[in-house]
Amino acid sequence: MIKTPIQIRFNDMDPMGRVNNSSYSGYLEIARMDFCNKYFDIQTLNDTPFVLARIEMDLLKPLSPGKKAEVLTWVSGIKTTSWEFSYLIVEPNSSEIFVRAKSVQVYFNYHTYTKERIPEHVREILSSLFYSEAKLNEMIPRKL
Question: From CA 64, how far away is CA 15, in angstroms rounded?
Fold first, then answer.
């Protein structure tokens, strides 16, 4: 599981004084880039090994200024040309859950603009980050 700290910026706020709904997808993007930086040698944007195909989020509680937040990211599914990330945006000390989300990434070659089968070395990385729902329930207390 990857833990990505998030700095909540003034720009993320809506007029009601909480994180705007649109900012959460940006936090997930930061987590995906954290994944890339930890596991791939990305020199240019064309070296990114995937394209985002789908994203879904359940906003459970508002996140407000002064709260600390981190994105927990893990692999929840692997197919032939794609994989699924699952995410929780949580308060790191209490594990209070603000957002549950999923995204589908398609392994993509930006040099040829084609999707490709996930290579074995990438599949090994993804498998090392795979967590079943049962294992996840053991690791993360559910505070809603």
Answer: 12
Q: Which of 102, 111, 108, 106 has the alpha carbon at shortest distance from 133?
A: 102
> What Cα–Cα distance (Å) separates residue 98 from each residue in 30, 61, 66, 75?
16, 5, 14, 19
The pLDDT tens digits for 66-94 are 889 999 999 999 999 999 999 999 999 88
Q: Rounded CA gap, 53 and 80, in Å?
A: 14
CB 126 within 8 A of CB 75: yes
Whether the per-residue pLDDT at 10 is higher than 80: the answer is: yes
CATH class, 2-139 region: alpha beta
Show the tokens assigned to 109. Answer: 């070659």
Between CA 30 and CA 113 the distance in angstroms is 23
Indicate whether 143 pLDDT > 80. no
Four-residue CA torsion sign, 5, 46, 120, 101: positive
Q: Centre a 10 Å sphere on the Cβ of residue 42 and count the other Cβ atoms it contains.
A: 13
Domain ranges of the chain: 2-139
pTM of the predicted structure, to 2 decimals: 0.89
